[in-house]
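Consider the following input, taken from an annotated entry for DNA-binding response regulator (Paenibacillus herberti).
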Amino acid sequence: MDITILLVDDEAVDLAWLRVRVEGSGHDSLKIAGTAKSGFAALKLMEQERIDIILSDIRMPIMTGTEFARKAKEINPAVHIVFISGHEDFGYAKEAIQLNAAGYLLKPVADNELNEMIANLCMKVEAEREVNSSVTEAVSLVQREVLLRWFRNPLPEHAEERVQRFLDPLLREGAAVALIEVDDLEYNTKSISIEERRKLLLDVEQFIQEFVHNNRLGVVMTGFDNRYLLLITIEEQICRPVLEKMVGTFGRVFPFTITIGLGRFALVSEGLHDSYGQAESALNTKWILGKNKIIIQDKLAPPTPLLASGLPAEVDLIVDEMLPAMLEYDLVKIDDSLMRLFQQDKDAQPLPKSASYDLIFRMTSKLHADLKHRNENLYELLDWESHMPLVLFEFETIHDLISWLRRRFFEVSEMLFLKQRRQERKLIGDITRYVEERLEFKVTLREVAAHFEFTPNYLGQLFRAETGVAFSDFLNDMRMKRACALLDDPRMKVYEIADRIGYKNIIYFNRQFKQVTGMTPGEYRKKNKI
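Applying the prediction step yields:
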């Protein structure tokens, strides 16, 4: 298989001369994939063909050689880049070192220097391919189950001979274990047919296999339901960028994401076994740290107790605060309560999965019991067939679980609030009709509250909140409207009208009528020619 090389220089003469010298270097396996006069043109060539080696001028207009190198590494992190430039470009040389360049040649480049650099790089590419090839061949010789069983055994003995033969080529330059998990696979495939799911899984496996092969990551093995074991053999310093590229590319290709747990690099089989355990531990923290990312063992926080002392009492206290917030449609308070319950404050350690489910059961049970006193059934409002519906166990991160609970509690809060508003509006209508029917009596707030089984204080506040006026003003307004209607009948005396609407004192009635209408009852009749 040819080793491909790309030549980049903005000077046409230098580029042509470089091509002649590379072609005459005497490496039969070396193939010039193309030449480019700018970094932009070179990047386009890299998108069309895999490049193993790049010889590039470091000082070019618009996009410098170092800027081009950064973008080239994004396309192919394993590519070997050699910069060629003049003595006065030492500042660029320092930057090239930071970019982990494979080499740096100063102009004018002697033939022996160029040939030696190309020879060394070709040997390195061939060695990398040999490792990948031997690993791939070994996979077919070593039973996958044997290797996976060795990895999964928490206290393994020394690796047996056939396992060791498989691992030796990987461990020469160092290797690490990564576990790749497809996020929310069950949740995203439960509505499709078995055949569609099978095809989707094959597409996922093909994507991962091709990505690993194209980027020379190492070897990938299946054997899990929605996980893939990756034995990484590329250099440690470029491992993280390549895996980040895999995560990003996967998310653009598929309607879901992947999360990768990464262990440390090792040089011996015992260290590689530890790397597997580290990758598994890292991936298991996806519940807390989130998905669609790389989780590294070194970044994990120390474990904390499942529940701090005194938390059960705090749970009840927070749920007690949540219920009135749900009744009042206070979404901010509901969200704050959920975040406190699940310890999502920035200084708190989030709850593990088992503790989270225990909390949900306790929280919903208490809310249900409290709502029963209001003739409401929380489980019916949530449309849950059981106290812990199966959908709760499909979430793989605490963030997803809280987001789902938040949405459902917001919906319940809205239903309760609207139902309460409808009840309050009906109550106001009933109160209005009751007062209208009893205007001839001395109607009071206390009497109305007793009739509707409320305290006077609560009913007065509810009435003002719903109508915007005090009950006394409403009652007085109702009486004056009835008085005007009765005054329109010329057969009725004013004192009779006052008595009819509950006023026993004619002077007080006249004063109240004038305060509301701006005229006395007599003036009202005179104005309306009654």
